[in-house]
Design goal:
Layout (H helix, E strand, L loop, with lengths): L7 E3 L5 E4 L1 H17 L4 E5 L8 E6 L5 E10 L7 E5 L7 E5 L7 E9 L2 E3 L1
Antiparallel strand pairs: 1-2, 3-4, 4-7, 5-6, 5-8, 8-9
Length: 121
């Protein structure tokens, strides 16, 4: 079954199955607008396509000026260890999906960017 916006297919349990390319193009244009208008070096978007409630996407402005980018997820549940991922110069750093948010907890996200002029947070 397809909704009338022409973007999604749902199964009989009303679960999202497919996002059409037209929708993705519109979303990518909106992301570009957010990045351009952001006063920050990055933009975080939670569960962008509705496919993983424990993820967020991070988009970087001027990522070619960065040496390393470290993303850390800190859960309010003290039993759960912090999760970090460092993107190095070898990796594409203009966009990245982080998976590791903890369900039913508050999650703090820290972004640390190292440049030739020192660290930024």
């Amino acid at each position: 079954m397809m909704n009338y916006e022409g973007c999604f297919y749902y199964d009989r349990l009303n679960r999202l199955l497919i996002i059409f390319m037209n929708f993705q193009i519109v979303v990518e244009d909106k992301i570009d607008e957010l990045i351009i208008s952001s006063k920050s070096d990055y933009v975080l978007i939670y569960n962008l396509y509705g496919t993983n409630e424990l993820s967020f996407n991070v988009y970087f402005k001027n990522s070619e000026d960065f040496n390393d980018i470290k993303c850390t997820i800190i859960s309010s549940d003290k039993i759960i260890n912090d999760f970090s991922k460092t993107l190095t110069e070898k990796e594409n750093k203009s966009a990245y999906q982080m998976i590791g948010l903890t369900a039913e907890n508050k999650n703090k996200i820290e972004i640390e960017i190292s440049t030739d002029n020192g660290p930024k947070t």
